Amino acid sequence: MRTATALLACVILATLLVQVIPYYQPAVSAIRITAETYDRWLTPCRCYGGTLRVALPSDVTTLNWWVAGATWDLMTLDLLYDRPLRIINGTLTWEVAEYLEYSEDYLTLTMGIRKGIKFHDGKELTAEDVAFTINVLATKSWTYYHGYFTSVNRAEAVDKYTVRIYFKEPDSQFVLNSLTVVRIMPKHIWEPLLNAMGDELAKYSPKPEELVGSGPFIFVERVPGQYIKFRVNKDYWLGRPCVDEVLLIPITDVSVVILGIQRGDLDTYTWGVDAAVVPTLLANPNVGIHIYTSEYFYHWGLNNQVWPLNISKFRLALHYAVDKEAIVRDVMLGYGIPGSPGVVAPFGSCAPWYNPNVEKLVYYDPKKAAEILDEIGFTDKDGDGWRDGPNGEPVVVELYSPTPGYDPVRARAAEIIRENLAKIPGGGIKVVVYYYEWATLWPLIREAKVMSWLLGSGWSPDIGWLRFRFHSRPEGAGNWARYSNPEVDALIKELLATFDMEKRRELAWRIQEIIALDSPIINLYYRSYPNPYRRDRFENWFFESTESVFNRISVLRVQLRAEVCPAPVTPTPTPTPTPTPTPTPTPTLTPPPVVTVTVPVSPAVTTVTVPAPVDYTPIIAAAASIVVVAVVAAVVLLLLRRGK
Amino acid sequence: MKTFLIRRVYSSFITFIAVITIVFLLARATGDPLAELENDPRISPATVAAIRTAFGLDRPLHEQYINYLVNLFRGDFGYSLHYKAPVMEVIMQRFPYTLALLIPSITLSNYLAYVVGLEIGWRRGSRLDSVFMGVSMFIRSTPYFWLAILFLYVFSVVLGVTPLFGAVTPGRRFEWSLDWFLDYLWHYALPFTVLTLRGFLSELIYVRNTVVDVLGEDFVMTARAKGLPDKYVKRRYVARNAMLPITTVLGMRYAFLIDGAIQTETVFSYPGTGRLVYEAIFNRDFWLLQGAVVVLALSVIVVNSVIDLLYAYLDPRVRYR
Fold this sequence. Notes:
The complex is a heterodimer.
Chain A: H1 2-20, E1 31-33, E2 51-56, H2 71-77, E3 85-88, E4 91-94, E5 97-102, E6 108-113, H3 127-139, E7 152-159, E8 162-167, H4 174-178, H5 187-197, E9 217-223, E10 227-232, E11 245-250, H6 254-263, E12 268-269, H7 278-282, E13 287-293, E14 297-302, H8 312-321, H9 324-331, E15 336-338, H10 358-361, H11 366-375, E16 396-402, H12 408-422, E17 430-436, H13 438-446, E18 452-457, H14 465-470, H15 486-497, H16 501-518, E19 521-534, E20 538-539, H17 552-557, E21 559-560, E22 588-589, H18 604-607, H19 617-640
Parallel strand pairs in A: 1-22, 2-11, 2-12, 16-17
Antiparallel strand pairs in A: 1-5, 3-4, 5-6, 6-8, 7-8, 9-10, 10-11, 13-19, 14-18, 14-19, 15-19, 20-21
Helix pairs in contact in A: 8-11, 15-16
Chain B: H1 2-29, H2 45-54, H3 61-73, E1 79-80, E2 85-86, H4 87-122, H5 127-141, H6 144-158, H7 178-215, H8 218-225, H9 230-252, H10 262-268, H11 273-282, H12 286-314
Antiparallel strand pairs in B: 1-2
Helix pairs in contact in B: 1-12, 4-7, 4-9, 4-12, 5-7, 6-7, 6-10, 7-9, 8-9, 9-12, 10-11, 11-12
């Protein structure tokens, strides 16, 4: 009897304990991502109306976002769709997403999305749409951004406004790379299409009624080669944009764009114009110029497998010998920034990762180049003015550049490099420049069949792009120089594996220092583009350092000036942003603070006294009139005299 | 005549096949259209492979060729890699603009070249002849691009009487109304004028020289010696004989419509197939290029045949058996 009671007591106790145990489990600590909200960039509309006329350098090729990759296609589609997050002026900003939380093992990411966002056809944007979009990108390899979603196992809608993404392995690049580029596609439109067409969707051109998104503008029509028209989405969740319509007009000849801007037929251009026409444009008080710099890095690629470029110090000497400032000043007329020795750009989305110490490690110093070359035995042994190898072998560096017609800046930069290297004190390094048509040159670069080349290459928002460029993996794509350094490989591996932003920054800094001294490629310059826009019709343009004035924030807040406003609006109080829950003191993944680097912009634009351009108008008009009159008169005379 | 036609059709067919085969091989010799994607850090190798498969680029050459021929005769011209749409759709969206611009322009410039060329050839050596030849040489030697920009600058910028770009005012939806057609014609005027002027003055020299050649013939001298009026000699003797080579040259201009007026399209931002074909070469968009070449080959063959038949009508000495 006593045993039975004891047993019963144990069972009851055990049952009670089991009930209580869950409360003693350690709380699963979630790691939250922090970002800014949109408010800081927007201003209330004082005028509704107007049509924004924007020139594109070439026609849009496809409006199927799944496969669109061309810059202008993506720019156009940006008017239609929203993203979970966006990088604006180097700052991570919430868009459709409201919060992001990682599980402790980084294999699960929970995303909360805003409530009340509607697609253009009235249906609400829910977690189902987000999950659908991510799943398609993760499973269909023909989608353009598939490469950013290969680490995703699947995404599912936990409830109406919460998405959970499950990863195959922790991916530290996911938030900055993937969530800032994916546009949220309506599941109710694309799922039936996907089911019906399968992989043939890669070749599909969506019909106008299928071009439905949640973005600030609604698609109206597209006439190929002529224009694409959008009208304002009055129910846009951030508040309706101030303008009524956006017209994108493809104009292939940039001189016509310049004339159009001068005449006022166009409001802005999505690209840059030639630096030489800037003074002429600025002579018109109604035209403004915004200079933006692309993080595309133009570099001298060196084939690390070929002698003497396989000698690290030799490459470093070449790096000291190249005058990047001269290239920016003389070839680009100041519209550019000398390339950072560690390749990571000091501005834009690369700015948080940039290591300023690299500028002290490698800089223009021909004497230092000479010292290093002397040290490794590359001296002028036969007295012909050119340095030879340690055993007297002739040294010739072949430099392959695309033709001036394809890229005049690169073609001229090649000549400057040749001159720089010829002038190294104590004997120059002979550089022979070859100009190849781009389509012929590119396969040679890809297969490392040339000794050195000039190439412009892209990056990604997350610093993990260093792997694509400098890791010595076998398939090699991206690392065209075939650079192989086990220390860098190890650092890159760690960089990709860790989520600690501070640690990642440290690793990125260290990698940049090694790359600067190893110089597998010599980063030459970043290009700046003078982007024209009119000031007399629209005001409140948003200026971003790495984009043209036609950007997401501009289209939301640009408005007609008071003088030309048909119906001014009394400013409504700015809607208070939905309060985000106070973050619990858990470890956060704050993207490192943007190091404000004063991007050296050419002073030419702000302080130059604009010389009055020579006016050839009367002469041209006279000549043309004479020709036309002569021809017409002759034809008329002839027809009249036919009978005789 | 029947045998002639059958033989003609047969030889045209062989020519057609030969042309598209050569273009098929040459296009693929220019390299891999997906090569540029490899320098883009966003694209994974799996994506490049998937696109390659979707467009049939991973199949062996002979398989691609056979598939292409089979589809061609079924009316399927393939997909444009660059535009991600059926090739015919891409071409047909722009071809009507090219046709509308070029056919009237070529016709008018041909007519003017013929009429004026005949007169100044007849009056060779006169001041009128010198004036026209001078102007013609000048216009013909100037780069067309420069001429077009000059006209654009004078008429659109300085005088402001014509628009700067487009086939219609951007944003103007097509409708069957006078308003829309007037807008269209307003945009049409300048490219049409420049094309016609240039075409007229270029062909003028050729017509004039042909006329001068014919004037040197004995039968012309005989006709004038017989005392026939100038007008009669000009029309019945000179014009008719000069007509034959002129017809070939002026007529063949119609064959190259799809090449369009690429410089006109660029300067006036006028939609058309010229720019399309040019870009297809640079983007290595094989199917679009092949589709354009099919249209080109067909039009050359058809126009050539029409001209040959016209010959039989114009020249009683020509008989086709």
